């Protein structure tokens, strides 16, 4: 909450101090991206007499965002991203082991504060600190040999902070730009009533490419 208050104060300060960008150029930027979400998160714990290890693997990601340019060098962007990451769970009981594959929905709703470092250059380079609300889906844990079919409820109320760097490059005179962005979100996942999956640091790295249009 303290970090959120500080961020809000900084935004208000920029609104008051910085001049508005030219209306002729357009103050809105639409970004449509696809890419990859990668995480090395791992959870270990107990499932009855057995032990389990769950690994989160990378998956495709898609996002849409809209930025409002308050000043030449500063904008506020609201975006939503979705990825269905792969989960691989290995369960061990003595010498016996089995693997199960499932998936987990990860959907961050993000408010970013974009600092445009080269606004008058053909390549618009920007730095993007952010705050997010991350919604997780549930995942199914199945072991047919043991008759286990359990849905794990993952906490859907995770606050997160992030940092990214991106570029916008004009595509001729079409009005569209090529956009690329690389960043990280620091977020935890909690599996309710699932020993060993409390406060797992997911902390995904995002690599996104797509298109942007200023209007």
Structural account:
This protein has one helix spanning 2-17, and strands at 28-38, 42-47, 50-57, 59-71, 74-93, 96-116, 124-136, 139-143, 148-152, 158-170, 176-186, 188-189, 200-201, 205-214. It is mainly beta and 215 residues long. The strands form three sheets. An eight-stranded antiparallel beta barrel has the order 1-4-5-6-7-10-11-14. It has a two-stranded antiparallel ribbon with strand order 8-9. Helix content is 7%, strand content 65%. The chain is elongated. The relative contact order is 0.20. A hairpin with a 4-residue loop joins strand 8 and strand 9. It has one domain: Porin, CATH 2.40.160.20. The model is unreliable at 1-24 (pLDDT under 50). It has one helix and 14 strands.
Provide keyphrases for this structure.
single chain; 215 residues; mainly beta; Porin; two-stranded antiparallel sheet; 1 helix; 14 strands; 65% strand
Q: Helices, strands, pairings?
A:
Elements: H1 2-17, E1 28-38, E2 42-47, E3 50-57, E4 59-71, E5 74-93, E6 96-116, E7 124-136, E8 139-143, E9 148-152, E10 158-170, E11 176-186, E12 188-189, E13 200-201, E14 205-214
What's this model, at a glance?
This protein is mainly β. The protein has one helix at residues 2-17; strands at 28-38, 42-47, 50-57, 59-71, 74-93, 96-116, 124-136, 139-143, 148-152, 158-170, 176-186, 188-189, 200-201, 205-214.
* Distance separating the two termini: 34 Å
**Main beta-sheet strand count, sense and barrel state:** 8 strands, antiparallel, barrel
Which CATH architecture is right? Beta Barrel
Q: For the residues shown, what is the average pLDDT?
A: 80
Let me know the number of strands.
14
Give the overall silhouette.
elongated
CATH top-level class:
Mainly Beta
What is the number of helical segments per DSSP (H or I, 4+ residues)?
Answer: 1
Instruction: List unreliable stretches of 5+ residues.
Output: 1-24
Summarize the amount of helix as a percent range.
under 10%
Question: Any idea of the CATH topology?
Answer: Porin
Strand content: over 45%
């Amino acid at each position: 909450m303290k970090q959120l208050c500080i961020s809000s104060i900084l935004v208000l300060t920029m609104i008051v101090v910085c001049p508005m960008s030219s209306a002729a150029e357009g103050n809105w930027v639409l970004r449509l991206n696809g890419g990859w979400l990668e995480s090395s998160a791992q959870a270990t714990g107990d499932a009855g007499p057995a032990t389990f290890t769950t690994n989160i693997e990378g998956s495709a990601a898609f996002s849409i965002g809209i930025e409002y340019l308050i000043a030449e060098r500063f904008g506020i962007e609201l975006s939503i991203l979705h990825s269905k990451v792969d989960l691989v769970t290995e369960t061990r009981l003595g010498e016996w082991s089995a693997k199960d594959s499932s998936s987990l929905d990860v959907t961050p709703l993000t408010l970013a504060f974009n600092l445009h470092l080269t606004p008058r250059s053909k390549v618009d380079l920007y730095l993007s600190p952010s705050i997010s609300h991350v919604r997780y889906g549930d995942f199914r844990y199945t072991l047919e040999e043991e008759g286990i079919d359990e849905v794990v409820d993952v906490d859907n109320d995770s606050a997160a902070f992030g940092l990214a760097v991106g570029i916008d490059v004009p595509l001729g005179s079409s009005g569209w730009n090529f956009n690329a962005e690389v960043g990280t979100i620091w977020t935890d996942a909690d599996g309710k009533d699932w020993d060993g999956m409390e406060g797992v640091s997911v902390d995904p790295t995002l690599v996104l490419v797509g298109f942007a249009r200023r209007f």
